[in-house]
Amino acid sequence: MPTPAPSTSTPEGPGSVTGVPDLPPGFADTFTSGYVDTGTLRLHAVTGGEGPALLLLSGWPQNWYAWRLLMPELARRFRVVAVDPRGVGLSDKPRDGYDTGTLAADTADLMTALGHHRFAVVGHDIGMWMGYALAADHPERVTRLAVAEAAIPGLSPSPPLFGSTEANNRLAHFAFNRLPELNEQLVSGREELFFGHQFATKAAKPLPVSAVRYYVDTLARDPEALRCSFAPYRALGETMAQNERRALRRLSLPVLAIGGGEVLGAGVGETMARGADDVETLVLPGCGHYPAEEAPEAMLDALTGFLAPYREGKDD
What we know:
The protein has helices at 27-30, 71-74, 100-113, 126-137, 165-178, 182-187, 191-202, 209-221, 223-234, 236-246, 267-273, 291-294, 296-311; strands at 32-37, 42-48, 53-57, 79-84, 119-124, 142-148, 251-260, 276-284. With 316 residues, the chain is α/β, with parallel strands linked by helices. Helices cover 41% and strands 18% of the residues. α3 crosses α4.
């Protein structure tokens, strides 16, 4: 197994392994937080476990903590790397670089710095956007791709402006989050209302109060964190153009598409079938937008089976 490069320093406090609520028992015995210098910026990653490398990419408005319930069991089989991408959590927050091409390059550089040339990827929400870009832009690096609960701008059909009430309620944040500057002015001081509404309306099974409070506090604590939470949406024009080009060279690696039965369902697989040839679709009944937190056992079972050939060296 490759030996990870040393981090520049070990963070402590809010956002690190030592500063988040309600981790599974023994979590800190397996996982550590570290800052990793990729050569272009400093990213925070939580790493632990033994085996082939597995990269976890969280979605909006979350961070590495979204994977906490899956990580201990995954670490029995893999070297787990749960990253705070550019602009998220404890990672650097530059003004630009939030298109998925740049975000994917960031994570590829992170895995290089940690000594992992080949790895599998699991991405949720915006992490699904990043995972698709990573597999398309760096095909020599990614062995398998599991994605959950997102449409991919530039790959999925654009919804109509005047759609159903259900569709509007689910997708209204796309247009709002792309607005310049006004977002921060309207949400600042009302983070609990805005982000709390996202979690409350998109989960079929309510997330723990402590988890929602942690996510909200992370964004409320730092104006730069709030700005960066909108940045991938403001970069959607560039991302969509990239994805239109990516779709011309279809993915050949195995893809697992996971949808919550109460939200996107089979739509995740339909999205990935537009850009990949080997797609397996799984719908989790009774699950909303956050399968890693709403249905961790079902998601873990799915990932364990899907990633088994990679773990056994059959993908090389």
